[in-house]
What does this fold into?
Amino acid sequence: MGQIGFLFAGVLAVLIPALPGFGNVVSAVAAVILFFFGMWMAWLCFAQRSGRALVVAVIALVLASPLCGVFRWPLIAGVFLVMGVGRIERQALTIMVPVWVQFQRKVIMRQNRFQRKLAPLLSDGSLNLPGRGAALKRLIDPELGCAYVLNPHDNTLSAVLRVSHEGVENIEPFERDVRSARWGKLLASAKANRIATIQSMVRVTPDSGRAVQEWFEQRSVPGDSLARRIYSVGVAQAGPTGSGRDSLIAVTLDLGLASKEINSKGGGFEGAAQVMRTQLSWCEKQSGDAGLTPAGWLDSEGLALVIRQAYDPTAAVRLEMSDRLGRDIEMAGPVAEFEHTTYVETESGFHRVFWIDEWPENYVSSTFMEPLVNISNLALTVTVLHHPVKKERSLRRIRFQRGAVQGTKENRARRGRLSNADDDQEDTQAQRRDRQIAGGHRESDYIGLVAVSAPTLEALEESSSTVVEASPVGMRLLKWQQSQAFQMAALPLGKKFVRGGQS
It folds into this structure.
């Protein structure tokens, strides 16, 4: 229900009491609904021992009482009107209030607390994540050996590709633009390949220095010379002080859109795996054309390590140096999790997710996010999720945008005012997008998330301030949905994000 709907409901709530007979009937129905809702919240108060449920129950029962019959409709009308025009942190109340209500329901029902069984009863490949993540399962490709993540809620199948690339400072500007165009080609052709989501992720984690040590051992001159001893000490001291970067691409297949192809391959997981292998080969080739070096699709142990490092950043170095720790997919998730308003607390650290809500409006270089991912000594993950858009939807957006700009120009012309440069630029961009879509290009909706982790709450506050100050884009702290947002931002699972609900 959008803002216009709430405004319309508020006007109706003002007019209903003036209608003879009808207003009394509606008032009685509203009182009955409020009474039963208040009784349900009272039961939750005693069952869950929740003070918030008691407050809501008292308010509902007071509004349902005959003493409030005169004030009931003005109060309801005021709530609807405020919902229609109010905003919190530049977001409409129609978006933020459902999110807040959902979080309060989780708190009352104690669903904001999660505790995993120390030993799963069955080794069925379940990821055992909090919330709706509990339904995710790991499947193994019989030919490639890579791990797939089955999401029964979204009816999708995901795989994760690890990639590497040169430092941007070593690439010529023209070559960077060419690679960016090829990456855009990959995103543009995703919809035709039945891809639901492409998630690109850069993980910045404290480095153990193992890679530096191996590089030194491979290239140094064997022996016991003074120079070797001095360099060995320097490498041992400087290696763990740096940060490592891990780049991942999660490709998510829409099983509903690909159902015909899956059935033609025999159906079931075998058919889905055959279709998925085709998409993986396509993605690997396209990413190679974009200047990325594919390092292989993650197997079950590799996926488990990524999940474990996300939830346990303090042990990231120890897990990287070990060949056994953190490799069990059923035990990779958090042992315990407590979701707060603006952060998530787990058994090993604190995590916070920011929403990128202000992207550059003008042309920028493809390296504009480098100041954010180059932050050292922090556990940080930057994720961008791309959801392909149908051609018809893109055309409707462009027509609406061009119509709005044209209407603004006509209104200014009638008033004798000149159009400004912003309107001309917006119209030019819309025309260019129209030509690109007519030429076969496909658009995608994109969502940017930044996850920050720290061992203590004080360190999390400091890290968050550092990230916000260094960010080249506008970021806003997500409230009342940190648990599911963290799964999207820090885990390469290709999940869909739904504002105001679960993801």
Summary: The first strand starts at residue 87 and ends at 88.
